[in-house]
């Protein structure tokens, strides 16, 4: 009984005025004969009771339904700030109002987040357009692609104008066709491996790297080969089901050729064009530690005889000319694959690679001395030129550049001490084997 009272106390409070009115009427008529409590009094009592019930119905049922309907209509029209309030004494509708308001709070929060996301996406899109426009002013080609769906999103028309053989929007096919038909043969494999879709997706998924670059050579329509730099950048707005990238290609031909020329100058001797001492050593060390480690080679050191006398007698200009003549002779006698360098004022070094036999080495050394012996210097071409040569063998005399250098230098000194214009081949740690000069 107590539970029933608690559940319906709101309604009992609502109709309490009718009960109060009925009690007053009964009190006033309690001493009146029953026959005097007529129809009029009953109608008044009944009217008061019905009016109270209507008031209760409006306050606890119709009013909340009307307010809820109004709030729902506002929500349907997109007003997510609509709320429904109800007296906490109206148990069921109060619970409905709480749930409705919680739902609207959630909807408002989600709407704000969606609106914020859209604003960010719009801003990113605008930023991408600005970035893309800036790139187009400085780059040959610009594109956007979705790697996850293997599609060009932007730039396909530009690429098709540049490469007439491109008639597709598939990213993998575009990279493959360019590699096969437009990239210089020596760079094709590296280009394909770098920019293929699977490789880029793995790089961007696994680590913090957001940019991939490659310098390569591209064949132009007129048949020339020019340097290009291609860059692919992972965009930050990529989602789980897509991977957007932006890429561009720059013409770096002039810069790259200047750079290569500077590198070459740093590796070459300014007078003779041969490798300088430092780079000669670097090339020899790399070769002996790598592809030449299982073959036989000869370290040959050449020193111009009486070079000081040439400078003192003929002058330094003729001395420089003598060094140039020696350089040309070395390049004619030895192969283009051999390592030839100028390692001092009048000293030269050759790593003669993979000679077939000792006799082949002797023939090469004799030819060198013969060629140098034919050179004449001076205005009258009457000043002879000759050189002394020291040789050490790989791997008998050493397995490193330093070891071979020391043995060849010792052999060269021995040749100088025994008449010059000849060569000596190292025969062991201290023993030197003399070969007759030509």
Relevant terms:
438 residues, alpha+beta, Beta-Lactamase, Alpha-Beta Plaits, 3 domains, 6-stranded mixed sheet, 5-stranded antiparallel sheet, 14 helices, 13 strands, disordered N terminus, disordered C terminus
Give your account of this protein's structure.
The chain is of the alpha+beta class. The protein has 3 domains: 1-120, no CATH class; 139-258, Beta-Lactamase (2-Layer Sandwich); 268-434, 2-Layer Sandwich (Alpha-Beta Plaits). It is built from 14 helices and 13 strands. It has helices at residues 2-7, 9-28, 39-76, 91-138, 156-162, 171-181, 188-195, 197-206, 253-267, 277-289, 307-314, 316-333, 358-373, 401-417; strands spanning 141-146, 151-154, 211-219, 225-234, 244-251, 297-304, 339-342, 347-353, 376-377, 383-384, 387-394, 423-426, 432-434. A hairpin with a 5-residue loop joins strand 12 (423-426) and strand 13 (432-434). Helix 2 runs antiparallel to helix 3 (39-76), helix 11 (307-314) crosses helix 12 (316-333) and helix 12 packs antiparallel against helix 13. The longest helix is centred in the first third of the chain and has 48 residues, at 91-138. The protein is rod-shaped. The relative contact order is 0.05. Residues 1-9 and 428-438 have low confidence and may be disordered.
